Amino acid sequence: MATDNTDNRPRQQTQRTLPARKRIALIAHDGKKDELLVWTKRWQDTLASHQLVGTGTTARRITHELGLEVEGLMSGPLGGDQQIGARITEQRLDLLIFFWDPFAPQPHDPDVKALLRLAALWNIPVACNAASADFMISSPYVAEDFDVGIPDAGGWIAERIG
Ligand SMILES: O=C(CO)COP(=O)(O)O
């Protein structure tokens, strides 16, 4: 592993536990919302035992059409992706199911990229389509405490102040 001073990655890792009752974000771009609705309906019983959150329009449609309780944040183009990203950074989200649309540029593409970056950084399991979401939600780890390695934020700051 490179350790020279051009490597500005967090060097220390720590752990956090994804709890048995997961906090799951459900998000879909407009061209993918119907697919997410179909997927959510298929896994409705499993999803109901977890805590769900979503961007505004996605959350509203799931609640309206399936009766599942989903906390609705801001709509994506109005900042919802950033709110989900903040939850990841604060270790308040455990799984991200985000059916982003590979055929439709979004006005808030920088926010989408930022969200996916934070999910990668904080080692959050991410599913981007129905097949990956099937694999994720059928994992035995979904209903168990599960330890993941994350950057040591305190160590990172300590290193930077010398
Ligand atoms: O744009 C989104 C994600 O980038 C989703 O937002 P809505 O759920 O409000 O459509």
Write the layout of secondary structure elements.
Elements: E1 13-18, E2 23-28, H1 33-42, H2 44-47, E3 51-54, H3 56-66, E4 71-72, H4 80-89, E5 95-99, H5 109-121, E6 126-127, H6 130-137, E7 146-151, H7 153-161
Parallel strand pairs: 2-3, 2-5, 3-4, 5-6
Antiparallel strand pairs: 1-7
Can you offer a commentary on this structure?
By secondary structure, this protein is α/β, with parallel strands linked by helices. The protein has one domain (21-141): Rossmann fold, CATH 3.40.50. The chain has seven helices and seven strands. The strands form two sheets. Strands 4-3-2-5-6 form a five-stranded parallel beta sheet. The longest helix has 13 residues, at 109-121. The protein is globular, with a radius of gyration of 17 Å. Bound molecules: 1,3-dihydroxyacetonephosphate. The site of 1,3-dihydroxyacetonephosphate has 13 residues, from helix 3 and helix 4. Residues 16-162 form the MGS-like domain.
End-to-end Cα distance: 22 Å
Tell me the major beta sheet. 5 strands, parallel
β-strand percent reads 15-25%
> How many strand segments?
7
Strands of the largest sheet, in order across it? 4-3-2-5-6
Q: How would you sum up the global shape?
A: globular
**How many alpha or pi helices?**
7
CATH class: Alpha Beta
The percent range for helix content is: 40-55%
Radius of gyration, whole Å: 17 Å
Q: Spell out which ligands are present.
A: 1,3-dihydroxyacetonephosphate
Could you say how many structural domains there are in total? 1
Contiguous uncertain segments of 5+ residues: none
The sequence of SSEs as H and E is EEHHEHEHEHEHEH
Estimate the mean pLDDT confidence: 95
CATH topology-level name: Rossmann fold
CATH architecture: 3-Layer(aba) Sandwich
- The CATH superfamily turns out to be Methylglyoxal synthase-like domain
Pfam family, one: MGS
GO molecular function, one term: methylglyoxal synthase activity
Keywords: Lyase
Domain MGS-like: 16-162
